[in-house]
Structures are given as structure tokens and as C-alpha cells.
Amino acid sequence: MACLSLHLAIAKKYLEQHKNLNYEDVMKGTLYPDVVKEDDKTHYTEKNRGSDNVSHVRGKVNLYNFLKEHSKLNDFELGWFLHLVTDYLFFEECFTKEYLFSKSYEEFCKELYHAYYCVNLYMEEKYNVNKEDFKEYPSEYYPGIPYEKCILSKEMVDNFIKRVSSIDLEKYIEKIKDKKQNCKP
Fold first, then answer.
1. C-alpha to C-alpha distance for 42 and 36, rounded to whole angstroms
2. Quick one: which of 6, 80, 136, 155 could link to 29 by a disulfide (CB 3.0–4.6 Å)?
3. What is the pLDDT of residue 37?
4. Sorting pLDDT into bands at 50, 70 and 90, what band is 180?
5. What is the pTM of this model?
6. Residue-number span of the structural domain to which 95 is assigned
7. In a domain, 112, yes or no
8. DSSP code, position 138
9. What angle, 0 to 180 degrees and rounded to 10, lies between the N-to-C axes of helices 23-35 and 4-17?
10. Would 41 be classed as within a structural domain?
11. Which CA distances in Å does 12 have to 21, 26, 61, 127, 166?
12. How many domains does the chain have?
């Protein structure tokens, strides 16, 4: 899944375009899936998602199952859904199958979490994601380290934030419901 600072940057950019939403509720919903103990439930994780990196990470989120349980989204649930969309697209678009197959799960996690520490400080500097954004869950805030070369380039992160925060979620929800499965917007 994407790091919390990336989720918050996307939510902030989305909220800039949707000022009618309750800022606090969307932000709380955005953090919620990763801060609870049973995050497989909040992500609607597939029970049998495979042991290779590709099927393991790409089975982490089931958008359709979320929407079956949440038919009309309030602002908190919209933030939660945006979090799930971010996680789904993060593993679909930011990592190639070749890369994922070339690494053991342990190697992949080590590289990914190192990248998160780099991205955290970058998100604070560029997208104003700071400790205040974590006020509902202060223990989840990690200031990060100065950016260094890692598996998440700044350009890729910036493009991903722009893409995900610009998705028309209403149309995307209809597409998912129509296909009855995860799909790209």
C-alpha cells in the first residue's frame, strides 16, 4: 500500500478540487484503513491472493467489495474509498510485473519502506503534508529523511498524485459497479 503521506497529499489535492466536501472527514477517512489493527478488513483484501509479489500486492484491495457494503458514501467513506483507490492504482501503475517478480517479498518491502521514508519528507516539503494532518492518529506521523534515490522517483510520485487526485470518483464508482471488480478509471 502507499504510505500515509502519499495518501494525504492525494486527498489534499482532491479536496482542492472538491471544496464542497468536509475536509476533516475526508482526511480522517483517508487515514483510517491503515491505522486500524485489522487492515485486511478495511482494505477488503482478497483472502487467497497468492504468494508471489504481483498477486500478493495486487490482491490487497477490493474496490467492488467495498462499494457493495458502502452504497452511498459520506465524506469519511469517500476518503476511505480514495485511500483504497490509491492503494489499488499504486501497485498497478507504479511497479512493473518484472520488478515485482525480480524481488523477494522481503527485498521488495525493504526497498518500499526505505522509499516511504524518502517520500515522507518530500510530501511535507512539496505538498504541505505535516504532523497536523495526522492529528486524529498522531502516532502514525513519520517525518522522513532527505530524499535520495529509491524505487519511487519524485517525478513518478508527482505524476501519480496528479493522476489519482483528478479521478472523477463518481464515474469511477459506476465503472467498478458495472464491471463488478477492480478496474482502472
1. 8
2. 80
3. 85
4. very high
5. 0.95
6. 4-103+153-179
7. no
8. G
9. 160
10. yes
11. 11, 9, 22, 8, 11
12. 1
List the Cα angle 102/107/111 in 5-degree steps.
105
Cα–Cα distance for residue pair 88/58, rounded to 1 Å:
7
Q: Does 13 reside within a domain?
A: yes
Which string of b and e fits 138-159 if b means at least 16 CB within 10 Å? eeebeebeebeebebeeeebee
Contact 120/142 with Cβ under 8 angstroms? yes
Tell me: the pLDDT tens digits for 27-59?
999 999 999 888 889 999 988 887 888 888 888
CB 70 within 8 A of CB 81: yes
Q: DSSP string of 23-56? A: HHHHHHHHHHHHHSS-HHHHTT--SS--SSHHHH
- pLDDT average, residue stretch 6-27: 97
Say if 166 falls within a structural domain.
Answer: yes
